[in-house]
Amino acid sequence: MAITEAMKFREMGMGVAGEEAGEGLALVVLAILALAGIEPMLLNSIAVIVAGIALAVEGAMLSARYAKALAKAAPQAVDARALSGGMSSSLVAGLAGIVLGILAILSIAPETLIGVALIAFGAAVLFDYMARVQIRALRMVGEGASGESARIAISAASSTNTAGVLIAAGLVTLGILVLAHAAPEILASAAFLGLGTYLVLEGASSSGLLTELAAE
């Protein structure tokens, strides 16, 4: 990779990762304030919008990492359609979250909309995890790798960093409980606290990885 191209890639990656971490931190702050009893329904509605923006940024991050990894691996090594579906899920869930958050702020069935948003966010995080597994597999697979090598790489990649699966399961579970009106304000705040923490850690991890990729 040319020096100028590497610098542009690094700057883009650092900017997107920083934005992702910043939105995650905003979610943490909003969740803590909501748990403290400060306008919890309003703050949770705002958190839906922030989380939606963060997931859209997540899709952009995955796109950049995929493009870089694909340039170094055999295109036939993984199912590109499945990966693009994962990235699209982030964008769709993000846009849906923004709309649902705005409607919730307008007091249009806020508990129901927040619960639906949490379930959608959980699904998006799960698909993002699957996309990351394939990106890691692409980095492990060299030029002209066989199908067997690809399967081994994907198996190795999927055995690490399962935090996304746990967060996804938690978001879906809490979203269902919110829809069931089981302490919705507290559970929604707890869900956004977990999602925010995950995004902060993922943003830091992505920043380091993109810097490493740009140096290659």
Walk me through what this model shows.
This protein is mostly helical and 216 residues long. The chain has helices at 3-35, 40-70, 80-105, 110-140, 147-158, 163-179, 184-215. Helix 1 packs antiparallel against helix 2, helix 4 (110-140) packs across helix 5 (147-158) and helix 4 runs parallel beside helix 7 (184-215). The N and C termini lie close together (7 Å).
In short:
84% of the residues lie in helices and 0% in strands. By secondary structure, the chain is mostly helical.
Order of helical and strand elements: HHHHHHH
The averaged pLDDT comes out at 76
Morphology call: elongated
- In total, the number of domains comes to 1
Portion of residues in beta strands equals under 5%
Q: What distance lies between the first and last C-alpha atoms, to the nearest angstrom?
A: 7 Å
SSE blueprint and pairings:
Blueprint (H helix, E strand, L loop, with lengths): L2 H33 L4 H31 L9 H26 L4 H31 L6 H12 L4 H17 L4 H32 L1
Helix pairs in contact: 1-2, 1-7, 2-3, 2-4, 2-7, 3-4, 4-5, 4-6, 4-7, 6-7
